[in-house]
Every structure is written in structure tokens, then in C-alpha cells.
Amino acid sequence: MATIEPLVVPMTPDAPEACGFSPCEGGVCAAVGMRAAGVSAGFRKNPNRYDLALVVADETCVVAGTFTTNRFCAAPVTVSRERAARGRARAVVLNSGNANAATGEPGLACALKATALVAAELGCEPEEVLVASTGVIGVQLPLEPYVSGVPAAVAALAPTAAAAHDAACAVMTTDTRPKEVALVGALPSGRRVHVGGFVKGSGMIQPNMATMLAVLATDAPLTEGAARTALRSAVGESFNKVTVDSDTSTNDTCLLFATGAAGGEKIDGSSPDYPVVAAALRSACIDLARQIAADGEGATKLVTVNVMGAANEKDADTVARSIANSPLVKTAVFGHDANWGRVAAAAGKCGVAFDQACVDIDFLGVPVCRAGLTVPMDEDEMLRRFEAPEIEITVNLGAGEACGRVWTCDLTHDYVTINGDYRT
Amino acid sequence: MATIEPLVVPMTPDAPEACGFSPCEGGVCAAVGMRAAGVSAGFRKNPNRYDLALVVADETCVVAGTFTTNRFCAAPVTVSRERAARGRARAVVLNSGNANAATGEPGLACALKATALVAAELGCEPEEVLVASTGVIGVQLPLEPYVSGVPAAVAALAPTAAAAHDAACAVMTTDTRPKEVALVGALPSGRRVHVGGFVKGSGMIQPNMATMLAVLATDAPLTEGAARTALRSAVGESFNKVTVDSDTSTNDTCLLFATGAAGGEKIDGSSPDYPVVAAALRSACIDLARQIAADGEGATKLVTVNVMGAANEKDADTVARSIANSPLVKTAVFGHDANWGRVAAAAGKCGVAFDQACVDIDFLGVPVCRAGLTVPMDEDEMLRRFEAPEIEITVNLGAGEACGRVWTCDLTHDYVTINGDYRT
Does A41 score more than 80 pLDDT? Predict the structure, then answer.
């Protein structure tokens, strides 16, 4: 039998090196002009756990945001969406332990008061302060933890890696680890800039809610328009390509602060520096997105689903998402089973047109299906490859040139335990 | 506090009594003119398990079928879809243990030979014989079990409840029990008719495949057009409203034989008898569909998701399906948790328009959310209600008059075990 070549997916590389950047220290504070803090304010019962994060720019600066599309959206999303649309802000205050969702008018009032408290401490307008929450829904968010916690957080603000780390820890819920990124690199203009940030997200959060909150910052002097475009594009190729359990939260929020501290001319969409900053932001967001998938509730594996040979990008995304959301594919990965039949069934069910006789599938770089038929494989070798922390599934639909990618994780007993614990 | 009334869903009743029918014995053989058999033919390694079912009409009669929409469709689906479209058939042969899917030309040849073997034994044309398969995919289906098994099944054919039961058992895979239904009732014309059948389906089947196979029969003398219309409508309100794991199989097949043995004038769509037969068929299919959901892989609960107050039926179905497929809702049911936040998030994420401030939600007839806000409930009483085998979740979107319903099951540790067992 002739050797069958594995599939090669034609995609832009994700590594920061591809755009001339490299990892550095500092998280969201890697961006010059940003300070952060994480404190224990009392939103959670456990006093040893940070639950209030504050991220502040030294001066009011450019900001861009993307938010949940869920019809049920939380009070802080309503507030921050409107304020981020103004294009400039000074700070964001985040809490864990309570999502302030399905809380009606009192919830909205609480979110507004929280931003007013921060504004009073920082000496800025309330409209320049954004807010985000994650945790239980349907329970009114108390104001008291803000009253004592905001001054404490302002006092703790620092432009350091440790402070950024504290902020990243303060937004964790079922996350098993904080998730940070920081990159540094030179732009074509010669300016040295940073992109940093943190994210939380691990599926849905006990006992009620899913949330992904991300705060990113750069010292590149992006214009408001450039910040918005770069963020939207980066989110589209990173956080929007992650699915832990197919559930979109009521609180999803992703913010980008651009302090401009790197100096020099403003960078708009036509600047030669723009594509490089945008690529670095994309790389940073993909890094965080992969951290979310790898830390999915109960996950033992990060799963990357690549689809190539689709008629268009929408088809590629639909098929990749259908495979990534299939409980049968996810349990097969948990079971170290290169079960291409489940992948094929998931690809075939989502309404995208292709010919089953043209479909090729690889698991972990090993051809398992060619032209819709089983390819004999070395089962022992496949089991050895399944020991890796990351499982790559690649499907060629043979229907065109477009490709797409989605990250997910396996579906395990621990997912059921985390989300199905008896409520007593 | 004033008592909050539970939601009342305006839907056609499902019980056979609603159309003047009542349960009877006989399964698919309840329809006069039908015979069935189940034998062990060797498709499975276990010789004590039936794996070949044969269902035969005494004479060639009206037939209608609905089939999977999956792009990956199995060889028997290709054969049966074409033959059922002719509107008349004599028999269907079904096997478990191998789905004959992703088997290319050899698979197609095997399916055709199987029908030829049955035709030779029965003395009819091969084109009058349909075929269905369920089990592993990507593995060639051997012909040998048909060669010995078909004559044995023909010899065992009987018009009895026991024979119908054998057939129902022969198509089981991960099903934990056979699933049958039989109804009897009088039509407006005075004729006494029967509707009976069996189904298999339990999620996806080890190690590779999902399949729902259903065979229904009636002795009402439906015309080809009436049989097609009644079956399509009944399937739309029953099997197409079941989701165990959101995965559509490559082999789904549902057939209706109408023997006409009840005699009298043919029943077409304009006959006063038609709506009654159609209602009985709908009732029978809903009974079988609920049996599938209740026997979903690893399920401990049947879950009925009702959506009312939608702008249109499509919206109601989309929201109901989004809730029924949410792993977070399904694990919450497993955990006896009336977690309406997860239901709200699932409703909100699917692109259907509604105002969160107009949403009401009940769990098991207990109001838990009104106008998008939490309703205090008696947690002990709710936990008591969760002991029931069936969990009803009702959502009023407050956006219109349309309603819809989907059946599913909870997501449990056993689901992960069944589908994630290490392949070694």
C-alpha cells in the first residue's frame, strides 16, 4: 500500500514570532500606561479568594469592546457596551461570584453605582469606567463589596506583572488557573510596543452562568477606529472560535485599552504599523482562547478542529463548530478513540453541502479516512499519539478552497460532575 | 405574595384517547396483514442476541418513508429511499451490529443482494423489498448472515405480538429495552383500524454510529399520497422533535406500511377518516419518540421542553431545541437543579428575538422565573418533584402565540462512560 500523506491546512500561523513578536512578562500590565489590582472584596464567601479586579489606564485612552449576543444580557454588559461605543475610557472594574444578570433595574443601578465609586476614587467621569461581572445569575449583586473593595483596589494598583496576575486571579470562577498573555515586538516604524491581557472562562459557571471576560491592553497608539477593527477581527479568529459546551453566556465581554504610551504618530487602518499590531493582538487573543479551551470544565484535552476544502468560510466554520460541539466526538476524544465516523456524522448533519465520497479525515496527523472510506491505521501508534495534551482533528470536505478552525475540549465525567452536582 | 399561576401550554393532546384510539397488543403486527420475525443471523458476535428483523406485508401494499438528511448517508438509506418513493412495497429487512455506512460501492452491492435474497424467499420483486441497518460504520457488511438468516426469518414470520417483539429486539443496539406501540380505534366510517410499530434509537451507537430505525404499519387503506402526508406530518411532530445528543445519524429511517386489510374505500387526504388515522399515527409516533428520549444513552430522566409565546413555530422549535441540546441544562436536570439561568441562557443564544423582561419559566409546573426575574420557590418541594421520571421545562417567550416542544434526556456520567470508553 502506498503511504497516504496527512492533510496540510493552509492557515495563517498563530505564533507571535510570525509577526515579529515574542512572549514577555507582565500580563495586561505589559502595556505601558496600564495598572491593575486584584483584591478580596466580599463578593465571595471565601475571604481568601480575590473577587474584585481593577484595570486602569494612567490617562483616559482609546478603548474598544465586543460583547455577548445573548438576548439575556447582564446589567454590566448594558452599561459597558454603551460606554465602550464612545471609544474612550479610563478603567474597568470586574467582579466574580455574581454575574449581575437577570437582576432588572436594581442590577443596572448597582452596576452604575460601582462605576461611580471607581470614578470618584480615580478622579474621572463615571462614563469613563466600564464594568463586568461573572458568577451566579438571578441574584441581586450587593453594592457593599464595591464600597470597601474599590478603595482597596485603587490603593493596590500597580503597573507590575504581580498586579496583573492578581487581577487575572480575581475573575476566576470554575477556571482552574489564571490565563494571561503578554507579547512585545517592534513595528515597521521602529516603535517597540506591547500587547497583554487576561481572560477568564471555563464553560458555564456554578451554579448558573457561563462567562468569558477578557481585558486586553496595548501601548500602541491605535486610533479608536483601528482599535475597534483590530479587536473585532482578533476576537473573530480567537474567542469566537472557542466552544466548550456550545453555550453563549449572558455576560461575555472583551475589552481592549490602547494607551498610546509607545508614543509617535497615531496608528490608523492605513498605517504600515497597523497590520503588525493587529497580528500581534490576534496572536495574543488566540493564545488566551486556547487557554480557555484547554481549561474547559472537566477537560483533559485541548481539541483543535480544522476544516479545509469547504466551499466558503461560513461552511468551514459551520462544519468545524458542528464537530467541536458533538458530544459524541468529544467523548470519543476523552476515550482516546480516533472515531472518524462520529466526525463524519457531525460534518454531515449541519446542512453544509459536500460529497461524502470526497471527504478525507486525519486524527493527530494520521490519515483515518480517505474519499469517505476507512484507512487502515496502526491502532497502537494512534493510542500513543492520544497521550498528547492537544488533539488535532482535520477534515477536508473536498468541496472548495476555504478553511476554518474551532477549539474545544473533550467531554468527561468531570464535566458532568461540575455541572450536575446535586443541588441540596 | 400573590400565588403565581403555572404556565399552560396550548398544544394538541398526544394521548390516543384524544382521537378515539386506545392501546392494544401486537406491536407492528397489530396491523392486520403484517407479519414479523427476529432471528440471530450472525451480524453480532453474541449468538444469543437477535440481529436480523424482517417485517412483511401479506401482499404488496402502500408504503411511505422518511430518511436521514445527513450528507453522509448509508447504503441501505440510498436503496430504501429510492424504493419507498415508488409508494408500494412488500417487506423490509433490518439488521443491527453494522450500519453499512461509509462502505462505498461494496456496501451498496451488499444492501441490494440482501433485498434480492428476501425477494427470492417471498416470491416478489427485489424492488419491493426495503432495507435498513444500524451499528458500526466504516466496516464492510458481510453478506453471509443474510444468506442463512433471511430463510430463517422467513420461516419464523408470524402475525403475532411475540413475533413483533422479536423484530423490535433484533434492531436494538445501545437501547436498554425494545420500544413498541400499538393502538386500535374506530374511524368515522365505522371501520376498526390499527396502528402499530417499533423503533430503535438511544443516541449514538458503539463504537461509531447513531441510528433511529422505525417501522410502522396500519391496516387502514391509505392511498400512497395519504400515507406519505400522514407519515411526514407525524414524524415532524414526534421523531424529529427528539434530541439525545444533537447528532443526526447517517442511517435514520422511518417506514409506514398500509396494508389496507381493514377493507372498504381507500382513504385519501379528503376522506373524513383521514384526520383520525393521521392523529392515531401521530399519537403512536409520539409514544415511540418519547420512549427513545427516555432511553437516551445514560439517561435517568425524560425531559420535555415546551416553548410557548414565540413569534412563530420556527422560533419556538429553535428555542426548544437550543434548550434541549444545552449540556448545561441537561446536566442540571441530572443534578435535580431547577436552574432557570441555564434555560434562559440557552434560549437567548440561538438568535431568536424576544425581550428578556417578558420571559417566564416553569420547572415541573412550578414558576421559577417571571418577567425575566427569579421567583422564590420552595426548594424542598422542587427536589421532591425532581424524583419524577419525566421533567417538564416550560418557557414563555412573551413574543407571540406560537408554541413548540422537544423531547430529550439528561446528560449523565453514564453517557460519558457509554461513549467515551477507552478504545484499547
Answer: yes
The ipTM (two decimal places) reads 0.75
To the nearest whole angstrom, how far is the Cα of B68 from the nearest Cα of chain A? 9
Q: How far apart are CA B56 and CA B217, in angstroms?
A: 10
Q: What percent of chain A has a predicted confidence (pLDDT) above 90?
A: 72
Best CA proximity match to A396, nearest among A311, A304, A308: A308
For the entire predicted model, the pTM comes to: 0.83
Min Cα distance B245 → chain A (Å) is 6
C-alpha A204/C-alpha A314 separation (Å) is 26
Catalytic residue ranges of A: 211
Can you state the percent helix, strand and coil of chain A, rounding each to 5?
35, 25, 40
Kindly tell me if the per-residue pLDDT of A1 is higher than 80. no
Q: What is the 3-state secondary structure (H, E, C) of A175-214?
A: CCCCEEEEEEEECCCCCEEEEEEEEECCCEECCCEECCEE
Phi, psi of A160 (to 5 degrees): -115, 165
Measured between alpha carbons, how far is A188 from A361 in angstroms, rounded to an integer?
Answer: 40
The tens digit of pLDDT for each residue in B18-31 reads: 999 999 999 999 99
Indicate the average pLDDT of chain B.
91
DSSP 8-state secondary structure symbol assigned to residue B406: E
Mean pLDDT of chain A: 91
Q: Reduced to 3 states, what is the DSSP secondary structure of residue A158? A: strand
| A374: nearest CB among B138, B210, B336 | B138
- Residue B283: phi and psi, rounded to 5, are -60, -40
Contact residues, chain A, for B351 at CB < 8 Å: 69
